[in-house]
Amino acid sequence: MRWLVLLLAVAACARSAPAPVEVFRDGQVPIYSNAGFDPATLAGTWTQVATFGAACAPGALTFASGRVDGSLCLNGQARRISGPFGITGPSRILPMGEGEPWWILWIDYDRRSMAIGTPSGTLGFVLDRTGAIPPDRMKAAADIFDWNGYDTGRLRPL
Q1: What pLDDT sits at residue 120?
Q2: Residue 82: which residues within 8 A CB-CB, separation 6 or more?
Q3: Minimal CA–CA distance to 98: which of 86, 114, 113, 115?
């Protein structure tokens, strides 16, 4: 009988163990958000053109009046993002339901493409207004991720 109780206890522990969280950046490297960013420039629809980790169907986000609606491919899974977002610092937004702020690491001069990541490094992605990011801007986004400690070998175009 004791072995049955022990077996059931082990089985219960095995089921409740959380899945490991994938991390894409070296947490020892400082991370910087784009201090000169104006949140009003987010307005409109942005198509996801790259993500870290396993690829899936690209998503898109629409920003309007302090809200964000859409879905993203994050770590190989489509994830719905919908609701208000708060501003937590310079170029740092916290969409409702997200565990930590998204840092806008880079946005190009004409506000056509941007790279977003988190200090924990559990997510990172590239958005573009047209969905057809040119190679020079994709390289710039990858370089910014690299500078912020991300493993750019794990950045996947979508």
Answers
A1: 97
A2: 68, 69, 70, 96
A3: 86
Confidence of residue 158 (pLDDT cuts 50, 70, 90): very high
Q: Cα–Cα distance between 106 and 36 in angstroms, integer?
A: 10
Q: Could you give the domains of the chain? A: 28-157 (2.40.128.20)
Confidence of residue 5 (pLDDT cuts 50, 70, 90): very low
Of 110, 141, 112, 109, nearest in space to 129 by CA = 112
Pairing of strands 77-89, 92-95: antiparallel
pLDDT of residue 39: 85
pTM: 0.87
Q: Report which residue type is found at 128.
A: D
